[in-house]
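Every protein is a chain of amino acids, and every chain bends into a shape of its own. Below is the pair of lines this work produces for a single protein:
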Amino acid sequence: MSNAKNSMDAFATEFTKFIIMIRWIVVVAAVGVSGYIASNAQNLSFTDQYRAFFSPQNPELRAFEEFQARFVKSDNISFVVTLKDGSDIFTNKTLASIGSLTEQAWQLPYARRVDSITNFQNTYSEDDALVVEDLFPTPGDNTDTEISAKKATALAEPLVYKQVVSENSDATAVNVTINLPGKSPEETRETVGAARDLRAKIEADNPDLKIYLSGAAMLGNAFSEAVLSDFQTLIPIMIGIIIIMTMIVIRSPSATLATVIIVVLSAGVGMGWAGWVGIELAGPSPSAVIVILTLAIADSMHILVTARNAMRTGMEKRDAIIEAMRANFLAVTITSVTTMVGFLALNFSDSPPFRDFGNISAVGILAAWALSLTLLPALLVMLPFKSAPSDTPGDERITGALAEFVIGNYRKLFFSLGAATIALVAFIPTIEFNDRFVQYFDKRIEFRSDTDSVSKYFGIYQTEFSIPASEPGGVNDPDYLQKLDAFTEWLRSREFVVHVYSVTDIMKRLNKNFNGDDPNFYRLPTDYDLAAQYFLLYELSLPYGLDLNDRVDIEKATARTTATLSPNISTSQLKALLRDSAAWFDENAPEYKATPTGPQVLFTFITDRNVQSMIQGTALAILAIAVIMMIALRSFSIGLLSLAPNGMPILAAFGAWALLVGEVGFSVAAVASLSLGIVIDDTVHFLTKYVRARRVRGLSAADAIRYAFKTVGVAIIFNTIILGLGFGILVLSAFKINAELGLLTTLSIGFALILDFLFLPALLLMTARDGSVDASTEDMSDGVYEAAQ
């Protein structure tokens, strides 16, 4: 081990001397290459499609795409109109505004259908003929009697009540179906912008109205707006924290400047690489820039702290830089590799944005490692880097006192911290996975605030059921219609189901119409030909754009039933509803199979799939990191021991989360491998110094722990603070997935500091063979500054 260490020390020393000798070439080359790669960031684009969160192999996504292919691929924008005073919308003035909104909504980009209370296709019998017309053919020009009668019709119609008109008639929805061609990333933003302009126009013309915007297109646009919000606020805050913390720790403007250059170039390389390979940013992937800024400072901080301390003992700047590089070369390399392993494990995720997040971060970490070992020493030699005369070893006295406390109480610390971690771990099974896409966004995002307001009047989440008949034309089969109607009524009886849209309601209304509007005939026809005739006559009477192709496919082989769900439904409750619906068909209509789909169904299962896929990825990452530690430290036992302080913080963080929050979205899948790559940094730096003390300097276990605390304790503390602040900043994200990821990782980092300073030394002392737990009087004032042998 000593020879290996000396060989690495000699290489690091000679390497640094060479870098210093050609420092101008290094600076120009490093900045030039990094700048060139970073310039490709201009090619980055943001996707506003929620489908980007799902891999092409995702079975729920494939079912959704098959559904949309059958019933025409579409998204929607929903205008929900209310009066500011909360009064009834059934007045001539309000109906005129709704009619105007309906007419102008047809002009929105990519609009293919508009449904509202004014153009609802009402049917009735007149002289034995079927009449199909708008419910309000002349909105704004109706007598009180006409309004009252048509309001009664609307509230009695299953397809309107609680779907187009709210329960208390104080809100109405104008739903615009759009068909985005998918040729430009600007399509959604163009449509949303036009919808907002239209809303502003209608509200300006009608000051008593308040209009909210929701729907799938607004959801997609919200992802882009959340990313933009984070870029505008979080990145400047993070750079400010880096500057402030580096100044506090190093007390050198020039060293701070060098650090900022390193971290900014590292982030630029990561994002530039993403633009180079054509990654579309979505969800958590844009946050990689914040992660890189946070992690890139760690390597520089260890080198700068060591150099500062060496200069404080009287070393010349050049020698101090060489010494700092020698002392940290191995640890910085190990931490960079292990951190990259943790992030690269995200490639096992079922969600592409998490894979991109891991890969971009890994590239940035690689850049930070290379720049810290080349550009940083070159800049430090060139800049007026000094250790202030006022520096005192007070911070080392604090870490020294902490070392003595641990050595004096290591048995108590080992068992108490172990028991506390086990207690927290016991709460992990109580965490509930909950993915409601509306709550992915902070209320700063208009989609979230508007949709929260809409939820007071209507259901939010829709689950689509595609129910194929036995053959083309089978939708007209009376047996099929009876089973479909029974399922519709079963759905309506379920908790959390606000509204159900089914073609059987249209068929029952038509049967009544063709029988002189006799209420006794409000039932399904019992003859195939009669049902087919009803459908044909009804479709021939419908105006352009309001046909039934969105409800029944062209071959009349499959019908679509839509259940609109309460905003309060949880992921587990939706899963239960889907299980119960499958059981209903097995028991009542085994010849038919309903396939549930829709955006909320997609997000309902994404956590399960991500967790399942990431278990394998995290397990491989743990194994890889353990092997790296064993090889780098030339010790099977030390590498094995490192697993405890690396895994325990993550488990403790999840346990604490279970107590503090209780539920989490699909970001949880990424936290384990991500945190593993981060929390290992402190362990690596502590263990490399411990192993050096034991095998190079021949110290006892207790003195080796004192040595580790003295040489890296301060850097570990400040790195933890910076990492905690960096990931803590993500808590301010407008995107809940990033906020959860940031908070969970911050908890892991905090627990890692506690366990690396208290549990890891206790574990080393418990397993030490020499049993030397004493109050050593050996002078270790030279710290790591001994020359390489």
Remarks:
- Residues 771-789 have pLDDT under 50 and may be disordered.
